[in-house]
Amino acid sequence: MDAPLHRRKAEFFKTLGHPARIRILELLSQRDHAVHELLEQIDIGPSNLSQQLAVLRRHALVVSRRHGNEVLYSLGMPEAARLLEVARSIVEHPDAAGVRLPEADADREHHRPGAPPDGRE
């Protein structure tokens, strides 16, 4: 018997729980990339990139194919690009304070209108 839908969703979201995996999906939502192109765009080493790609492949979020001497990666399903867009709109929403990174909050506090230039009140 299949796991309940909410458990399968939780497992799916765990797959997205690494910043490198999110970045890989963002890049692949723009176009297919060779491994060396992904390495140039993401600040991780080759073995870590390989591990992150393997996780995404296991969940069918990315697929690979050979093109000459290169391995090209692309999105395994177009819905992943839509999911990233929804996630972006959620985290950038003005009422989404709970999903902002602490340094983003500090930055916003520092640049609050009416606050002294040095950030002190």
Query: Could you tell me how far the N terminus lies from the C terminus, measured between alpha carbons in angstroms?
Result: 59 Å
- In the sheet with the most strands, the strands line up as 1-3-2
Question: Helical proportion?
Answer: 40-55%
Q: What's the gyration radius in Å?
A: 18 Å
- Give the ordered list of helices and strands: HHEHHEEHH
Main sheet characteristics = 3 strands, antiparallel
How many helical stretches? 6
Q: What's the pLDDT, averaged over the residues?
A: 85
Give the C-level CATH assignment.
Answer: Mainly Alpha
Second CATH tier, the architecture:
Orthogonal Bundle
Poorly predicted residue ranges: 106-121
Question: What is the CATH fold-level name?
Answer: Arc Repressor Mutant, subunit A
| DSSP E strands, number | 3
The CATH homologous superfamily is called Winged helix-like DNA-binding domain superfamily/Winged helix DNA-binding domain
Q: How would you concisely characterize the structure shown here?
A:
This protein has 121 residues and is mainly alpha-helical. It has 6 helices and 3 strands.
What's the structural blueprint in terms of helices and strands?
Layout (H helix, E strand, L loop, with lengths): L4 H11 L3 H12 L2 E2 H7 L4 H13 L3 E6 L2 E6 L3 H13 L10 H9 L11
Antiparallel strand pairs: 1-3, 2-3
Written overview of the protein:
With 121 residues, the chain is mainly alpha-helical. The chain has one domain (5-92, 100-110): Arc Repressor Mutant, subunit A. It has helices at 5-15, 19-30, 35-41, 46-58, 79-91, 102-110; strands at 33-34, 62-67, 70-75. The longest helix is centred in the middle third of the chain and has 13 residues, at 46-58.
